[in-house]
Amino acid sequence: MTDFDRSSVTVLVADDNEPTREFLSSVLSAEGYRVICAEDGEGALRLIRSQSVDVALLDVLMPQLSGFAVCRSAKSDPDTCLIPIILVTALKEDDDRINGAICGADDFLSKPVNRHELLARVNSLGRLKQFTDEMDNAEAVLSSLALSIEAKDPYTEGHCDRLSKYSVALAEKMGLPKELLTALRRGGLVHDIGKLSIPENILLKPGPLTPEERRVMEQHTIIGEQICAPLKSFRHVLPIIRHHHEKWDGSGYPDGLRGEDIPLTARILQITDIYDALTTDRPYRKAFPQEKAFGIMREEVSRGWWDPSILRGFESLVSGARVLV
After folding, report:
1. R_g over Cα of the chain
2. Which of 6, 26, 260, 29 is nearest to 127 (CA)?
3. CA atoms within 13 A on the CB side of 56
4. What are the distances in angstroms from CA 232 to CA 176, 187, 309?
5. Inter-axis angle of helices 67-75 and 41-50, to 10 degrees?
6. What are the residue boundaries of the structural domains of the chain, listed by start?
7. For residue 13, what is the enclosing H or E element?
8. What is the pLDDT of residue 304?
9. If 0-12 CB within 10 Å is exposed, 13-18 middle and 19+ buried, where does residue 121 land?
10. Beta carbons of 129 and 83 less than 8 angstroms apart
């Protein structure tokens, strides 16, 4: 990872002891960091939520809220959970470090703070934050590109966002781990990103595709996987992109996978994809009512196209949760 411009890194220093606060601030400012300060825990949490903080130095024993409490609150908020937090403490007990780790602290500094150790810790975590920000930016770019495909067709407005919500809700009901929930959220947005390579005369053709046009269209799953493959954080998303057009009986594409050889996340997304397509207006028909849509999907299951247990789970979920319909 390349070095970063320290002037672009904002460090929060939170300590109720003014001499300590001034020492930490002066050392970091001299190295080019942008430093903002708080005198207590409530002020620190307010700045974390309102400012673009890259690294936070929190004294453990502060009035209003302790450093532990601020850390716990920041790490439990999706908007601030990736901010690296260093707890600064005069406490020597192992239990305090264990407590800090449970709260989500990324590192610790002991008082009196050593200048070189301070700079080493902030430098390391500042670089890490820059890396995670770059990954977030890459995800945002991919999502924007994927949504640009959706924007070409007024009949698919909101489709990707609905797929994300449907798929994550079903996965939660099934008890899937957090990393697969994240993959399904991302997959709902970018599953069709490979369609960027498909000519518009094929992508937006109102009538049936010719065999050659269909071969071109079916390449979008492979191309989409290739587009997202460089992102290591998308490793669980790639199977969704590649395999969401496979069929339970092996008649799908691109690899003709059958049954449980089709990744579970891809099977989840394809069920929600079909449901959304059936329950939204299309140029050639109006949206089907919920029960009619599920009737069509059950018929397709009887033909061997989709995983019957996934459909049953999704139908149960939709029937019991108005938020999805």
Report:
1. 25
2. 6
3. 34
4. 20, 14, 31
5. 20
6. 6-133, 152-324
7. strand 10-14
8. 95
9. buried
10. yes
CB-based contacts of 78, cutoff 8 Å, min separation 6: none
How much is the pLDDT for 101?
A: 86
Name the nearest CA neighbour of 76 among 98, 97, 45, 33.
45
Three-state DSSP class for residue 69: helix
> Which residues, 6 or more positions from 176, have their beta carbon under 8 angstroms from its beta carbon?
184, 264, 265
CATH of the domain spanning 6-133: 3.40.50.2300
Q: Which CATH architecture has domain 152-324?
A: Orthogonal Bundle (1.10)
CB 298 within 8 A of CB 311: yes
8 Å CB contact between 126 and 8: no
Burial class from Cβ neighbours inside 10 Å (0-12, 13-18, 19+) for residue 60 reads: buried
65 neighbors 41 (Cβ within 8 angstroms): yes
Find where tokens 């059936």 sit. Answer: 278
Give, in degrees to the nearest 5, the angle at Cα 283 between 277 and 289: 45
**What tens digit of pLDDT does each residue of 62-118 get?**
988 999 999 999 999 878 988 999 999 876 666 777 888 889 998 899 889 999 999
* Strand positions, DSSP E, 60-141: 85-89, 107-110
- Averaged over 208-231, what is the pLDDT? 91
| 152-324 matches 6-133 in CATH topology | no
Residue count of the chain, please give it. Answer: 325
The Cα-based distances of 282 to 54, 156, 255, 276, 285 in angstroms read 46, 8, 29, 11, 5
With the CA atoms of 273, 278, 281 and 283 taken in that order, what torsion angle do they form, in degrees rounded to the nearest 10?
90
Rounded CA-CA distance 101/87 in Å is 10
pLDDT at residue 133 above 90?
no
